[in-house]
Each structure stands twice: as C-alpha cells, then as structure tokens.
Amino acid sequence: MKNIAIFLNFSKEQGLKIAKEIITRLKEKKFKLYSSKDYFIDGTESFSSGNLPENIELLLVLGGDGTFLSIARDYASYQVPILGVNLGTLGFLTEVELKEVEDAIEKIDQGQYNIEKRQMVEAELVRDGKIIEKVVALNEITISKGPLARIISLNTYVDDVFLDCYPGDGVIISTPTGSTGYSLSAGGPILTPSLPVLVITPICPHTLHSRSVVVSNKSEIKVILATTNQEVVLTIDGQRGIELKGGDMIKVKGSDLFVPVVRLKGKNFFDILRLKMNYYSNRRLL
C-alpha cells in the first residue's frame, strides 16, 4: 500500500495541522499521496472528486465516523481498503486514535494488517409502483417521523411475510457494522462485523412486545408507510434524508457492495468495543 488517498474533515479542530504532520511522516516512508479536489491538502496530488485514480491502494480518512461513512459510500464501488484516524469524539469506525498514528503508519508500511469486508445495505423507494430512488448505506437505513410528537405506523414484511406493524417513532434497518450506532441506542443487539445478517430495530415502539429482529442479509425487507399527512423521512447513514409520503414502500436488503476496512494487527472488534463503549462513562460532558 504505497499509494494513499487522504480525506480530511477540515471542520475538525487542528485537523489541517494533524494532516500535514501525517503527510510528512508518510512521505518519509516513501508513500505517494493524493487528495480529491473537495478535500485537497497541500503536499498531495489532486484528483477529481468521485474519480479515484487506478493506482490508489488505501483510503485514509482523517475525521470522525461521519466522514468515514460518507467516504465509504462515495467510493464503495472502487473496493479500495479504508482506514480511519479519529479526529472526533467516539470514533467507532475511525478506530486509530491520534496517539496511535505513528504505530499505524509503521504497520501499514510493513503490511501488518488484515482486510475486513463490511456488508452494506441497499434500499429502493417505491412510490405509485415506480422506483424513484436507490441508495446504499454502510451503517443503516432509517424510516422515522419528523419533529412533531406523533406516532407513525410502519407495516413491515420479510420475504413477503408480514412481520409486524410498528407504531412509534420509526424503524432502523442496520448492518452488523451499524449495530453499534443508532440501532444500539434504540435497544438493538451488538453484532460482530462478519455476520451475514441485518437487524430490524423499532424506534420507541408504542407497544409492549416489539423487539429487534435479526434476518439474513439475503432477505428482502419491505416497509410500507401506513401513515398519511405527516412528515416522515428516509435517512441514509444519518446523513442524507428523503421525504416520504403515505403509501410509500421501502425495499431493503443486503447490498452486493462491501466496504473493505483495514484492521491493524493487534486490534480486534471486542477490544475496540470495550474501549469505545466505555468512552462516555469515563468522562463528563458539559
């Protein structure tokens, strides 16, 4: 991995300074560095956004999980491994902390890493019998109500078999990677990243029996919005929203696309889980 594309979240405090320090260190190791015009950093060669040069072998994301998710979706079709350096707060996907950067560079240089294939999820929005939108996500697809405190109803099917009508704030359909995100906050289970499954988690269900359901990533999940005249949104990885209408159908299943994520030697899912999930209990937020 000697050809690296770097993506920096410029809004992060000290982000550019940190990026330049990392670039200096990588150049000392004879790495060739690139950055897109949207994320251009001095000391790198530029390329057009969304048009990754063929020789790129690694996407290095400097930012938080939001930046990681955005880059993962934008460049998923290239199947280039991605590694995140955490400049944010929790940083579950951007697993390399600043104090670990030097060690991470050494491991990349020496080939001390594995590549994990992370399942993506795809969704089609069907309105009046026509597909009007197709999207993919790494973490989750969410159908949720707007700002008013009103319950919505979502008829949910798995492989054309009725599962349940979820009355509440909405439903999350998550990948194993996304199981430590919004789905976890809504009471969903934690799944190891390699599992070939999706998890359906209701959000604040107004019922005594609704719980998360784990299904095969080959299954097709259909969610039909049974509520009319109310603001409801389809959200992709918590970053892009599409307004829904009563009667809309959202078809969701595991995508053929995977995100190849770099896992450095010496790190494993459960160590990261334990470290990251204890993050907020070890500090006081203002």
Automatic annotation (TrEMBL):
Record: active site: D65
Annotated residues that bind NAD(+) are located at D65, G66, N139, E140, R150, D169, T180, G181, Y182, S183, L184, S185, Q239
Q: Which GO molecular function, any one, fits this protein according to its record? A: NAD+ kinase activity
EC number(s)? 2.7.1.23
GO CC terms, sorted: cytoplasm
Q: Name one GO biological process term.
A: NAD+ metabolic process
Answer yes or no on keyword Ligase.
no
- InterPro entries under this entry? ATP-NAD_kinase_N (IPR017438), ATP-NAD_kinase_PpnK-typ_C (IPR017437), NAD/diacylglycerol_kinase_sf (IPR016064), NADK (IPR002504)
Domain of life the protein comes from: Bacteria
Q: What is its main location?
A: cytoplasm
Q: Which cofactor does it need?
A: a divalent metal cation
For this UniProt record, the keywords arranged alphabetically read as follows: ATP-binding, Cytoplasm, Kinase, NAD, NADP, Nucleotide-binding, Transferase
Q: Which Pfam families match?
A: NAD_kinase (PF01513), NAD_kinase_C (PF20143)
Give the residue spans that cross the bilayer.
Answer: none
Catalytic activity reads: NAD(+) + ATP = ADP + NADP(+) + H(+)
> Could you confirm whether the keyword DNA-binding appears in this record?
no
Q: Which family does it belong to?
A: Belongs to the NAD kinase family.
Q: PANTHER family, from UniProt?
A: NAD KINASE
Main function: Involved in the regulation of the intracellular balance of NAD and NADP, and is a key enzyme in the biosynthesis of NADP. Catalyzes specifically the phosphorylation on 2'-hydroxyl of the adenosine moiety of NAD to yield NADP.
Protein name from the UniProt record = NAD kinase
Q: Which organism is it from?
A: Anaerobranca californiensis DSM 14826
